[in-house]
Design brief:
Two copies of one chain form a homodimer. Helices cover 40% and strands 24% of the residues of chain A. Chain A has eleven helices and twelve strands. In chain A, the strands form two sheets. Chain A has a seven-stranded mixed beta sheet. In chain A, strands 1-2-5-3-4 form a five-stranded mixed beta sheet.
Chain lengths: 305, 305
């Protein structure tokens, strides 16, 4: 957060590297550009700022087709426009792997930035946006599947609810974060920065995921039906797998860039209450249905699959 | 350039990649960080803005010592402080080569940004800061030499005259750029953006370089004295080499990040007049002593050395 004359700005940066954050054979250049922009724009929105501008550092080997770079830039510009922002500058350099560093600047419109550190005991915890879609889409791509297309497309190009950031700021959100690492991991960032416990309710989460839960179950069933996965497994095990996969994606899937926020006053439109803020128990942390939340990949079935 | 509430900001980004922009065996981590920050901060200053904030995207392989990253961050922070700015955010990611993407934000203090496109026929062209030092230092390092230390240190960690940017803006500079690619190349950026001819005077340039010219000649003499360079060369050829090297560094050496500006009114303190703006001849371009400026490395002696 910084002051520019009488204005207040929120600034953030996100770096994507080929092979680590995206694959050119899985996503189009336009999708990669849009995803790079989305990661930064969602972070700006999560501070309660209205995205205004992006500056883009782009690195590529000489072998990269010019059309790829042009399409990537178009994807960045289109996603910026979706959030109400524009690309205002950039730098291009040579590098072995394609790299995209997107800096975002948001207008706080005179407000203070919403930080991770402001959650108070008694607040309600609410979420806006998709959960688990991107992680499910990634798993499908890894297994060579390209559907359900809603999930795969969401992994290629997430749809963060940018406008909900300013709405949450107006509703005096005490803390906010965009979900890039996964719900539990990002809730833990708030819990630790605020020194509180965040209690989540699985049934409230499933109600929020709503129709998406069916898509996630479809994806898990497809994965379970793959020859390598179902080899000699009885049906009851497969059913457990599907349940665990959905739970894993919802609790630990990243990159959907939904907004997780804490409120002491009324919950703004578009947010669903999924938990509450309590005093720390055995340190600041995240609990689900009164159990300490497990780490990502903590399910034995899931790991062995 | 963008508006943040009532404020106006200048924003720019610069990406450095290991092996292309720096070598860890030639520069300390602190120097690499300072240089990455300097490139961006000088660009902010060249828009006539007061540097306010940096955000840093940092990529590194798992094998990079943590101390290197910590020292690099300290170098960025120290250089930001030298320019009156602070590091306000960042992102860290895994990458095969060390990469540093520095975004800079400057406060235009209500003024418009000084662009490359505003030079007018009749303007005087002036410079502030070192010329050729960094290029000479790089050539010395390439040949295994570590002195004159002033030049080698300048390559490792340039010293841009940040405060001169706002001074030039107050003096109503019509166009400005920081010299990152080389004097002629960056003057050409202004000439083309403004559709003018920029005439430079070699004697005025040498007067500006002043005591630095002696350092540059010392460096060239050291290079000429290397066994591979002087093998079977008569003294008169060596003298030509030294002269051509100095000319090459001053006209084409980049990364010193001095400020080149055009003025239609009084020249501000710290700037030396080195030329003038005229109408285009055979297109927009740069001339030196009434001859079209050659490209970098255009000297036969230099290239064959």
């Amino acid at each position: 957060m910084l002051a520019i004359g009488a204005g207040r700005a929120a600034v953030t940066v996100d770096v994507l590297v080929e092979g680590r954050h995206f694959r050119r054979d899985w996503s189009s250049a336009q999708q990669v550009g849009a995803k790079a922009a989305a990661a930064t724009l969602a972070d700006v929105a999560a501070m309660g700022a209205a995205p205004v501008a992006l500056v883009v550092g782009f690195g590529a080997p000489a072998s990269l087709p010019v059309s790829w770079a042009v399409d990537c830039a178009a994807g960045i510009e289109a996603e910026a426009a979706r959030a109400g922002a524009h690309v205002v500058g950039g730098d291009v350099t040579a590098s072995d792997a394609v790299l995209i560093a997107v800096t975002g600047i948001g207008d706080l419109q005179g407000r203070g930035a919403v930080l991770r550190s402001g959650a108070q005991v008694g607040d309600r915890v609410a979420i806006c946006g998709r959960l688990g879609w991107s992680a499910a889409g990634l798993e499908l791509l890894r297994r060579g599947l390209t559907g359900p297309t809603e999930l795969v497309d969401d992994h290629r190009q997430p749809q963060p609810p940018y406008e909900a950031g300013v709405r949450a700021a107006f509703a005096r959100a005490t803390a906010m974060i965009d979900i890039s690492d996964g719900l539990v991991a990002d809730a833990r960032h708030i819990a630790q920065a605020s020194n509180v416990r965040i209690d989540l309710s699985w049934s409230a989460l499933l109600a929020h995921v709503a129709d998406g839960a069916e898509l996630l179950r479809d994806a898990a069933s497809l994965l379970a039906a793959q020859p390598t996965a179902t080899h000699h497994q009885p049906e009851v095990v497969v059913r457990d797998w599907v349940r665990d996969w959905v739970r894993e994606w919802v609790l630990h899937g990243g990159e959907d860039h939904g907004l997780l926020a804490c409120f002491s006053e009324a919950i703004p439109a578009g947010f669903t209450v999924i938990g509450s803020v309590g005093p720390p128990i055995q340190g600041a942390g995240v609990w689900v249905d009164e159990q300490p939340a497990q780490q990502a990949g903590g399910h034995e079935h899931y790991r062995s699959s």
